[in-house]
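One-letter codes give the sequence; each number marks local geometry. A record appears below:


***
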Amino acid sequence: MTEKRAWAIDGFLGLLLLVALFLGGVYCIGKAENPLLGILLILLAAIGASGIFIVQPNQAVVLIFFGHYLGSVRKSGLWLGIPLTVRRKVSLKVRNFNSKRLKVNDVQGNPIEIAAVVVFKVVESAKAMFDVDNYEQFVEIQSETALRYVASRYPYDNFDEEGYSLRGNPEEIAGELARELQARLEVAGVEVLEARLTHLAYATEIANAMLQRQQASAIVSARQRIVEGAVGMVQMAIEELQREGFELDEERKAAMINNLMVAIVSERSAQPVINSGSIY
């Protein structure tokens, strides 16, 4: 249901009109000129008084007249609307929802614990009131559902460094979670302002094993970078020596490469050895 603006006039002006009707009725009854008119005026004033309502800042009041949606009033203040209407208040303030820690399986089947915070606000009071049973509960359930869905599409950690992972790409995961939530909550007239992960960890039963795997992967990756750097440095050294006029045969090159690689790659500092003779 689409939100529309309800008919309403300034409440202070409405109060003046109602007081005038009441006083006119009292006058007619007191003077006994037309008591029936006086009673009618007082009755109209009493019925009209039921149309007085107050709208707080960042709030919308939904007006329902015998099951028919008349519209919503968003502007704060005192208002006089159609009498005998049912009024439902909907908060338009920005609110947070912290999800519980959910235990789900990532795309690789590893059990993980994940939680998120969702920042949202109502932008369509009619949808929030009529299209869902309870929009606050709807936000909670759909937030947890979207979080489970997004978590099941990505690995916790990407050891191959290809594609997104829950731990390695928090901004991208947060953006996809917000888009997924917006698609689900649009039916309730809710706008998702932000959605971010607040907790992410392996489940207890595999936490130690996955920690060892992360450490091993980090060591392998570091070693690979060290070797790549060492090869480049050795190549530069040989090319520089050749540019300076030093001619190295294949055996000398092999010995030099061996020495440089040992000195660069080794975890311990290399011990210099002075060669006083020839390698031959």
